[in-house]
Amino acid sequence: MIGAFVPARQGSRHRAELKGERVSTLASKIVPFGSGSRIVDTACRSLSIAAGGLQALEARFSEREFAATFLRMVGMLMKVRGRVIVTGIGKSGIVARKMTATLTSTGTPAIFLHPADAGHGDLGMVTPDDVVLMLSHSGESTELGPIIQYCKRFAIPLLGMTAQPQSTVAQAADICILMPDVQEACPNALAPTTSTTVQMAFGDALAVSLMEMRGFSADDFHKFHPNGRLGAQLIKVRELMARDEQVPMVREDASLLDATIEMTRARLGGTAVVDRNGRLIGAFTDGDLRRTVTGKQNLTEPVGRFMTQTPQAVGPDELASEALHMMHERNIMLLFVCENGRLTGALHMHDLLHAGVA
């Protein structure tokens, strides 16, 4: 008899039990009982090795030749009339993409060139006004060859980043940053780990240095980051404030009734009180109105008697995030905007929150 008959339900249960045993056996091989601490130790060791790589990079800046080379690189990037063409292959290519994004968003026009596409027409994007920044840990990636030849043929400045001083990239570059030859966190010393961390950190250091050299401000940053949370934190008051007819205002001799009508029209929960020259001298809010009505005041009386004097105000070029902080601190919902003492706008907390300001 070749095999015994097994009912369908029992067969399914039997197969599940066998599968469970195989999974259990596999799990025990991957994570032996009691080895959790060893795995945590491995993760910590990886971080320690990466930190050592960053310390090695920082130490290089104290070397006169390395620092001088870095300054020459910054100087060339400051003077470039075109763009920075950043390139690399493999993991260095991924770092090059990130470096491109950081440079572009911080005031240095940059574009990533994939070496595999360079020899198929994309070299046409490189102009004599550009400079090429080439990343390669080994300095011997064959895919970079056409780009090196193109730079030499058309006298395009070539900046290199490699850990091997005798490599093709190092020898071909007009300026070459010699990265520290760090220990990889990979136990086989094969997978790029620490070396790419160091490359990434150097790219950030280069971008920040260029930012400071250019005097790249928060205003400039906002121009390149109009959307998202970063953009929201850099919005100016003038971009969100109500202006012109939207701003509720009355003269100090206006009646309480007139002030109430103006508040209702603008729907901001208050109105500014100004003098004959348009200078802000007070504020009259919903709270002031409730207190006034409770006191059974005559609605024909002048609002100037009941307004809040020296109200909180901000300038139009203040950060909206600072205005929101002021509102929270003083527990108010409405701020008036003044320029040289004159009322120019009004800002409600709802407008700030709607814009994502925090």
From TrEMBL:
Domain of life: Bacteria
Keywords annotated in UniProt: CBS domain, Metal-binding, Repeat, Zinc
UniProt cross-references to Gene3D superfamilies, sorted A to Z: CBS-domain (3.10.580.10), Glucose-6-phosphate isomerase like protein, domain 1 (3.40.50.10490)
Molecular function GO terms recorded: arabinose-5-phosphate isomerase activity; carbohydrate derivative binding; metal ion binding
SUPFAM superfamilies for the chain: SIS domain (SSF53697)
InterPro entries found in the cross-reference section: CBS_dom, CBS_dom_sf, GutQ/KpsF_isomerases, KdsD/KpsF-type, SIS_dom, SIS_dom_sf, SIS_Kpsf
Alphabetical GO biological process terms: carbohydrate derivative metabolic process; carbohydrate metabolic process
Positions marked as site (Catalytically relevant): K91, E143, E184, H225
CDD domains: CBS_pair_SIS_assoc, SIS_Kpsf
Domain SIS positions: 73-216
Binding site for Zn(2+): H114
Residues covered by the CBS domain: 241-301, 307-358
The family this protein is said to belong to: Belongs to the SIS family. GutQ/KpsF subfamily.
Protein name according to UniProt: KpsF/GutQ
Organism: Sphingobium lactosutens DS20
